[in-house]
Membrane-fusion protein
Amino acid sequence: MKKKILIITIIAVVILVPTYFLFIAGSSSSEITSGEKLLYTCGMHPQIISDKPGLCPICEMKLVPIKNNSQNSIQKSGERKILYYRNPMNPNIISDHPQKDEMGMDYVPVYEDEAGAEGVVTIDPQVQQNMNVKTAVVELKKLSSQVTTNGILVTDETQEYIVTTKVDGWIEKLYVNYIGQLVSKGAKLMDIYSPMLVSAQQELLTALSYQASLKGSSLEDIRNGSNELLKNAVRKLQLLNVSDSEIEHQKETRELKTTITLYAQNSGTVLEKNILEGQKIMAGESLLKISNLSTLWLITDIYEYEIPKIKIGSNAIINFTSIPGKTYRGRISFIYPTLDPQSRTVKVRIDVPNKNNELKPSMFANVVIEGPELKLTPVVPENAVIRSGKMDIVILDLGNGKFKPQQVTLGIYSDGYYQVLSGLSEGNRIVTSAQFLIDSESNLRVAVSQFQTGAHIHSSETNVKDKMIEEKRETKNGEGEKRNEKREMKNELNMENHDHSSSIVYNGVIDVQSIDKNKDGKLWECPMDWNVISDESGRCPLCNMKLKEYSITEVKNNLEKNGFEYKR
């Protein structure tokens, strides 16, 4: 009896267990599957998401279905897989292993099923190979702080001056005979005859005689008046650039000089000479330009992104192409306050000692500016960074074909690498090629998630809704549905005609002029496939986009910009 009961029990188990999996578990699985909503998006504009098939309201391309695989891992296994660990205080800092932050708080695990709404995408290994996805590991490097640039030597503006006069006259004697002549401070430069200077000297001699005649006078007011007259005569000569020594000499000798001598204010080299002996000169005219060349300025241009590497006092190593084998050293003395809007560079001034006058103004130099010593810091290759204008993004390789966009804060740039201030740590693996494609796919995943939660972008949702409302109006009373079917059949027929007439798809050297059969100077071109050109409106046989009207010149420019050749 017991044996019979045991046999019946075994038979019941064998029958009931498969039945359970077939009906109960199967229905649960089907509910999950059926619960997944099929969405549609535009291949050109991933922000356009719709729950029905149709056309993109922007480019009118057919919307394509999106497969949502965010729950696949949960359906296949009840276990939750950890993708990475996140800093609890700064979500931009992540790690591939458990650890603690500076405050001793544990990093928070991020599970595979939680990452779907955060832009994590899964890419099949075969697709990765087709996309040529390449990765690299974030390393600690000490970036070079040197700045390499070029420069031009100019004179030190603080050590040059113009020789001029405040009176009209004639050059009676010239002591400087050629450009490049060295002059010492106080050396004679020229003798000038000027009627105004002679008149001023005469006033001085008259004032001296008048003062001497009143020396024994008892009238104090008259004596004070003669003293004031003498002071005014001396002051007039001083204003005409007559030296005090010459004035005192004239007081002692009581002689009237017909010429006045101009002396060098400082030692230097004559750079400009605009006069000859016997020449008439005018007040304020530039006669000589003299500059001290013992120190020269080297003016260099530094790119905007290299400015953080330099400061006043930074040392510079300088080599001149005209003096091979010899190295000079200088120091940054000034950084100009404005940036050139065209070249995005700032001018930097370097003081360069010029011993034995070896260096000449306008000489060309190669310059290496030594910046501050940098510490070891995480760095990423330049080609791994996506700079959107609002933020800087890199694509993290999470392993197992999963990728995630990660916002980073960048520091200085040097030798093809960016310094990472936050967002990445040593050992993170990042994508160095095809990251733009992955970032686009990630944005699409986020858009899908927002659409499903009702948080989609308003403008995009409105466009799709407007399109759907328009279609609903057409389908009223059953008439719109028929029109839609006719319209789709017409579009398909047009597509077949376009496909059949391959004349609007051009390869090789394109003869643009011959396409303009009606000779109106206008053509229709696909903004997606630029080698699709027609002389009448229609749709592209390759992507189904509406052809856009351009002038012949614009068509040629579009072809050239996108790598196509045309007959010139």
Summary: The chain has a mean pLDDT of 78. The chain is about 30% helix and 30% strand. Residues 147-156+292-369 form a domain with the Elongation Factor Tu (Ef-tu); domain 3 fold (CATH 2.40.30.170).
